Amino acid sequence: MAASPEIETGRKLEPAFAKSEILPAVAQDAASGEILMLGYMDREALRRTLESGKATYFSRSRQKYWVKGETSGHYQHIEEVRVDCDQDAIVLRVRQDGAACHVGYRSCFYRRVVPGTADQLELIDQDKVFDPDAVYGSNGQP
Question: Are the beta carbons of 76 and 106 closer than 8 angstroms?
Fold first, then answer.
């Protein structure tokens, strides 16, 4: 079912939080176009992001808000916020300080499926930007 013409072509930001309380938010490097990570936002996370100029997400597992970089110092500074045609997905074009991935890589998408296989992964980014144990402690989690 298509969204209303006001949603699809209008000029008012009306994210589809009525359909889903939490929307996917893709962080993309504003300069290179590289996809850095996928997070989730609810209405409050989006409001905080727009007001602060730093990416704020809602953690589904921890059920709390978090500013990307608040622990690591690897902030995402908002350059532009985009929504798709029916306003149920968000793209954050950002200037990334350091790395986006809590594992230490610049992007969370540092692996790919090995061509010709259905279950094997290989690294496409060999170099970590930081040591997660040094930043987050031995559990490696933010």
Answer: no
